[in-house]
Amino acid sequence: MSADIEHRGLKRVSRDEFSFCIIQARDLACNIESCSTDLLYIYVDLINFSMKGALLNIPFRMQDNTNLIVSLPDSSEACWSYHQAKVVWTRKVNSNRYFTGVEFIKKMHKRHLKIFLDAHPHKLSPSDLSFLIHFSSFQTISRIGLSALLNSLHKILIPPGERIITKGDPGDCLYLIQKGNCVVFFETQDRVHIIARLKPGDVLGEMAVLTGEPRSASVSAETEMVLWRIGKEQFESLAEINPDLRLFLTEIMVNRFDTSSFIGDRTIGKYVLTRKIGRGSWGIVYQGMHKTLKMPVAVKMLKHDMAMEPEFLEIFRKEAETIARIRHQNIVCVYDIEEIYKTIFIIMEYLNGVPLRDYLKILCQLPVELCIKILLQICDGLICAHNHDIVHRDIKPENILLMENDFVKILDFGLACVPGTEDMNIMGTVFYASPEQIEGEPVDIRSDLYSLGIMAYEMITGKRPYPEFNLADLMYMHCNEDIPDPAESVPDLPGKLRDFIIKCCQRDPARRYQNAQQAKNDLLKLSALLSEKIDDKEATQSFTSLLIFHPAEQENILKGLLDELCLKAARSGIKIHLSEFKKRNHS
Q1: Using CA atoms, how far apart are residues 67 and 573, in angstroms rounded to an integer?
Q2: Where in the sequence of the chain do the CATH 2.60.120.10 domains occur?
């Protein structure tokens, strides 16, 4: 078999298709039914296969000519087909992954493997496998991570009425419910208090695993149940090798926060989560409320694959105290940081505003005056952060919030880093990333200015500077090609704004602005020039006034209509000034 996995005749498999190997220590020429104790039953990632062989992704090296049995998914009969095979080549992918080409010798019947299969009651049937690979909390896990997890799950059958968990027991495992229902409860002297009923597709016992505390409630089966168990220590060992398995924990927490009606299940320190308001590459954002002060907050939960990364945590903890101390009108205020459920929650002020990204979707290009107004405020926020030795490292329209009167707030300083630190692959959105970020070199405050320049280019021209059909090509251009001249797309672009964008976007950090104050100074000069022109222009402008009378209960509807009108007017260069007058009641 060729090492080329793209050769003719190979069938690529979907996420729904997995293979398992039965590896035999002795030669398969012997009677397989008499040597089942010498066999290893392991699920691996099946990349592709043909009539002659298969390509497997295996977590250990197998020597050439190793005999094994490969089972392939047979979707037409919802069962496995068994093949006697041997290893013909192996290629190392990384420290714990090997592409392994196997050649099929002959097809085998299930009866030949009866003793072995009977000796492994935890094995997955096709229906079991279908349930697990479609399990909602597994959808963010890679095929490699999922194949590792399949090898660690143990099937348990529970009769009706049997106790599954007892309050106070160690939280040493969690369960996936495939079949049946159970009740979660705690007991007092005079009665049993039912907390919840769980059904197929739910996760059971996960909170004790996440907190490390004893079980907080008991669980009993109401009907016959089929459960899949994984131990806490076993899962943590797997996650060290396959970090994407940690995303399973993220999905568990999201599901609990989204579906639980119990306040205790949605409490983070002094705050109660009320609803999910956003989801991004790094985390999930919830609206919350301080339990005693009744103050609205935004709570960002970092995804577990980041929060459980030791190198990231070391940097994050060092700067967390600094981030929480920053108080600036153009930076979202961080109130608190909580470490619980094996992740990090950042508690911030709750803001009613519109992301700059939404403005760009509607307007495509922003008026020059509005663009400068936004850039000046971002520079002010960056000056403050940089003076505290904090680099944002993810400046982009999604992280810029526009409030009333175009007041700017910069979001997401929770992913910042101290100057001089290496990227560690925790890179901001690649469309705005500096060359040094892309190449994994140390970043400093000038990296934020590069991202600011790319964003300014988009605000003015309505598009980002480089073609984005191919991510690798995009990253190459960021590192090796100057941005196009923005004046080619906007012929009437003020020269000083053109110069500002080009200087921010220099590939060599030494040729950029060396700090945000320098960038702000040039923007202030441009703003002053434009103000003089606007004053001359407004001397010949006409004004129109409009009074709108509306019932108080229609205020939100009117606000939405006026916001849309203001956006459309700005696109045409029309300024709208809104004033609110409250009607007084006279007795």
Answers
A1: 75
A2: 136-242
HSE-up of 472 (CA within 13 Å, CB side)?
0
Burial per residue of 125-156, b for 16 or more beta-carbon CB atoms within 10 angstroms, e otherwise? eeebbebbbebebbebbebbbbbbbbbbbeee
**Position 585 pLDDT exceeds 60:** no
Q: How far is CA 542 from CA 22, 126, 568, 578, in A?
A: 83, 75, 19, 16
DSSP annotation string for 238-298: HHHH-GGGHHHHHHHHHHHHHH---GGGGEETTEEEEEEEEE-SSEEEEEEEETTT--EEE
**pLDDT above 70 covers what percent of the chain?**
81
**Superfamily of chain region 261-349:** Phosphorylase Kinase; domain 1 (3.30.200.20)
- Provide the 3-class DSSP secondary structure of residue 76: coil
CA pair distance 516, 330, nearest whole angstrom: 14
Place of tokens 């997995």: 18
At residue 444, what is the residue type? D
User: How far, in Å, CA of 268 to CA of 210, rounded?
Assistant: 14
Exposed/middle/buried for 183, CB within 10 Å: 0-12, 13-18, 19+? middle
pLDDT digits (tens, 9 = 90+) for 484-542: 999 999 999 999 999 999 999 999 999 999 999 999 999 999 999 887 765 555 545 56
Cβ pair 82, 108 in contact under 8 A: yes
Q: Classify 145 as helix, strand or coil.
A: helix
For the chain, residues classed under CATH 3.30.200.20 are 261-349
Q: Which fold has domain 136-242?
A: Jelly Rolls (2.60.120)
Whether this prediction's pTM lies above 0.90 is answered by no
For the chain, where do the domains classified as CATH 2.40.10.220 start and end? 11-120
CATH topology of domain 11-120: Thrombin, subunit H (2.40.10)
**What does the pLDDT read at residue 415?**
55
At 322 the pLDDT is: 78
Which residue blocks in 136-270 are alpha helix, DSSP H?
143-150, 206-211, 232-241, 246-259
| pLDDT tens per residue across span 104-143 | 998 877 666 665 556 555 567 777 877 888 888 888 888 8
Specify whether the CB–CB gap between 363 and 567 falls below 8 A. Answer: yes
Give me the chain's average pLDDT, please: 82
Strand partners, 225: 158
pLDDT greater than 60 at residue 552? yes
Q: Which of 481, 317, 450 is nearest to 382 (CA)?
A: 450
User: CB within 8 A of 429, min separation 6: which ones?
Assistant: 281, 394, 396, 398
Kindly report, residue by residue over 223-270, the tens digit of the pLDDT.
999 999 999 999 988 888 888 889 888 888 888 888 776 666 788 989
CA distance 367 to 7: 54
Contact 445, 434 (CB under 8 A): no
In this predicted model, what pLDDT tens digit does every residue of 408-453 receive, in sequence order?
999 887 555 555 555 444 445 789 999 999 998 989 999 999 999 9
CA-to-CA distance for 253 and 342, rounded, in angstroms?
10
What's the CATH architecture for 354-535? Orthogonal Bundle (1.10)
